[in-house]
Specification:
- This protein is of the alpha/beta class.
- It contains 9 helices and 14 strands.
- It has a single domain, classed as Ribonuclease Z/Hydroxyacylglutathione hydrolase-like (Metallo-beta-lactamase, Chain A, 4-Layer Sandwich).
- The strands form 3 sheets. Strands 1-2-3-4-5-6 form a 6-stranded mixed beta sheet, with helices on one face. A 6-stranded mixed beta sheet has the order 7-8-9-10-13-14.
- The longest helix is centred in the C-terminal third of the chain and has 15 residues.
- The structure holds zinc ion and fe (iii) ion.
- The site of fe (iii) ion has 6 residues, from helix 2.
């Protein structure tokens, strides 16, 4: 059985830890810092770190890889088209890998960075800085059209998929979602829930794709009310969902 838990890093990153309780082997996703992982391994003797999965090249996702590789010789997976330290396996769209006895599909999700990939196994999505709870990553390298297509691909996965993204941005994302859709009861409910969770210091992840489709404005660019808000912002007719997406992303950048 696989157990998935978050190891907090820096101020708002999560390093996802996958534990195979039968073999006592584990894997981590996006260890931007080696310290939380090494502390966990030290506190849990007998566990072996066998795999390191990387979604994209930003330092807060790869900063701990080199030292973890040295300490554990875990196999490092990462996108083929980005520079990833100590990478053993270079991955492209639709590749399949087996980690802790489970098969994961690789999904290319350009936008935040051009080579960004996500890892999907039935029920679990590790999507780095592409899809966030109630938001999405900034466009550092890609175009709005690319990111919109990437998010649409993720949104097409089964609704009960658990979304394991890399940052605790949910509360600020929901404040933006409420500005986009002030009448959406699901957004307002979630904003209240997440406000309480953050006041109590509780993690707001994982999310589910069903919840994202109801509350994440970046997955709701086809909704008339969302389009109207985007049109108000740009003063133009955003006639296609990727134009609505571009307007929302630009608005969020200065929100
Ligand atoms: Zn990033
Ligand atoms: Fe990040």
């Amino acid at each position: 059985m696989i157990q998935i838990t978050a190891l907090p890093a820096f101020t708002d990153n999560y390093i996802w830890l996958l534990q195979d309780t039968d073999s006592r082997r584990c894997a981590v996703v996006d260890p931007g810092d080696c310290a939380p992982v090494q502390a966990w391994l030290a506190a849990n003797p007998g566990w072996v770190l066998s795999d390191i999965l990387i979604t994209h090249h930003h330092h807060d996702h790869v900063g701990g890889v080199q030292l973890l590789k040295k300490a554990t010789d875990a196999k490092v997976y990462g996108p083929a088209s980005e520079t990833i330290p100590a990478r053993d396996v270079a991955l492209r769209d639709n590749d399949r890998i087996t980690v802790l006895g489970h098969e994961f599909a690789v999904i290319a999700v350009p936008g935040h960075t051009l080579g960004h990939i996500a890892y999907y196994h039935r029920g679990w999505l590790f999507c780095g800085d592409t899809l966030f709870a109630a938001g999405c990553g900034r466009l550092f390298e890609g175009t709005p059209g690319q990111m919109h297509a990437s998010l649409s691909r993720l949104a097409a996965l089964p609704g009960d998929t658990q979304v394991y993204c890399t940052h605790e941005y949910t509360l600020s994302n929901l404040r933006f979602a409420a500005a986009v859709e002030p009448q959406n009861p699901d957004v307002l409910d979630r904003l209240a829930t997440v406000t309480g969770q953050r006041e109590a210091g509780i993690i707001t992840l994982p999310s589910t794709l069903d919840l994202e489709k109801r509350t994440n404005p970046f997955l709701r660019t086809g909704e008339t009310s969302v389009k109207q808000k985007a049109d108000e912002r740009t003063g133009t007719d955003n006639s296609k969902p990727d134009m609505v997406f571009a307007a929302l992303r630009a608005w969020k950048d200065t929100f």
